[in-house]
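Feature request disguised as a bug: please show the residue count (680) next to ComEC family competence protein in the output. Example input:
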Amino acid sequence: MKNLQFIFLRLCMYLVAGMLLAFYTEADIKIVFTGFGIILLLSILAYIRARNQLFPDSLFGITCFLMIFSLGFCTAYFNKPENQTGHYIKYFSQPTDSLMISGIITEELKPTKFSRRFILETRELISPGKSIAITGKVLLNILADSTQNKTTRPGHIILSRWKPEEIKKPLNPFQFNYGKYLKQLKIEREIQIKDSGIKIIGEKDDISTQAWHSRERIISGLKKHNFGADELAVFQALILGQRREISDELYKNYAAAGAIHILAISGLHIGILLLMLNWLLKPLDRSRKTRLLKIILILLLLWSFAFLTGLSASVVRAVCMFSFIAVGMQIKRKTSSLNSIFLSLFFLLLINPYYLFQVGFQLSYLAVLSIIIFQPIIYKLWTTKIQPVDYFWKLTSVSLAAQIGVVPLSLYYFHQFPGMLLLTNLIILPFLGIILGMGILVIILSVLGILPGIMEEIFSIILKGLNVFIEFIAGIESLVFSNIHFSLLQCLSLFLVILSLVILSKKVDFYRISFFLISILIFQLASYYEKWQLPYSESIVFHSSRSSMIGNKIEQSLHIYSRDFLQENLLKDYSRERNIDRIIKKKPEDILELSGKLCLVADTSSNYEIHNFKPEILILTGSPKVNLERLIDQLQPKQIVADGNNFRSYIELWRKTSENTKIPFHHTGEKGAYIIENKN
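Example output, currently without the count:
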């Protein structure tokens, strides 16, 4: 039985290994089918052989590992859009006016200043005389125009022109890659269209659409009450999972205070809700039949809450995970909670292997695992018989345990660590359950039309107090450590340190201490490697549409040549990843030596006739009125670079001239910032 205690952990490891191999390698479909068939046959033969043996050997175990591994590989392989025969990327991927597309809007995303954004599940490509059934998700950007009526919503079946575009990559180094993020949601293209260019041809009537309509009706009802804008935005995020009305300033405050996790319904909210339900239904623990009733009621109420939040993907995922945990809690075996977590992980990854790469999914599972593993260890470090003190110590141990698991990922993805994180969670977590419970009650009473004014006012004061507290914490800037460079290698090595701590906590001996010390050494080597591989010097022509910005990195200093003010947001990511601690603004010069290469910066129509002057790179900025063909003949550069501070008409003219003269042309607005490599 001991070997079966963590069977789902091992199965998940094999499954994930197969999925990762499929995501990062290419394979012919014939090889995939042949390999799976051979492994399946071997597994059947090994099973028959094991049944006829008195003392089974390891062959059956090996074939089981191979079977789960190949199952993970095949699941991920056939989920990749390029391996799906009916995916839209296989048909007419270029923009055209002769094709129409029909599809179902499945989800609404947070809008931008210029458009509303939805996820569109494609159904048909329609051309004159025929239609083709297709699959795949598209990012639908509905641009604001004078005819916009904002009637488009999830559940609508729409018809529009098929003009797919590649999702743009970031134009400056180390910026957030929105296209990569969308690929993790299996979205390969985007469509930009005005609201007037969309025709609604129907509406899908399913449970997800009904859930979305129910949530919107609840939100409309709440807006009739006297909640402030920020209070209502937080209310919607906390209870209903709708974050579209949260202002950028409010979002930044929650992030700086280390409380951003409460603005997105995740494992934290569902976990608190599960604990509340488990406590409320504790009288049903008296017999086996009533315990079964308790499980049924908990699952019913958890999924009712998911329906209340519109059945969004992240909430459904969290409720699914905690449904397994709820069952494990009632079994009351030592390893049931861990097995329940890994069973839910196994189940969810089979449904969607892309969950592996989604940050919310990773953070939810790591936080829950960390609480189960570390909370008992931390709690036992100190004991007290004073009940109120013991209660807060339990909350502290839970908060500390959760952070142990998620800090490496938080540093890697968000590059910041709030120094007041523990204090924030200690103050908020005890009241989050109260806020959730009271919020649900407010919603129910509001729907029934019997919400007392005193309850509305009390809840509004609570939400306002929460926002004021978060703003106060976020305002202590000295305790917010941001722009932390933390690589994937450092993240993985830090997880190795945490694993060694877990092993060491079970038993202290020479080998476990050695493993712990070696893991620390590996983390130090990873940190040293990240510093060592940074270039000593590097030059870059940044993409900026409002000004010219040419950077020259020397050690930990970045010299910026620009006539205008420095755009710090543009330089933030580059400075973090290149370990820059000082930015020096300099006046632009016509002639620069960048990374050992002579460069001419042409920002006017000046005469550049200099004897024996042959620059390797010609940088065009500020839309100079130059005769490029004559300039090329005179200077004979090896590379032409045009930054974002140029008229589009000039760019096209320069491109044609460069093509005619066979000189490489780089426009930062299309190819991103131009990095000049050092000769040495």
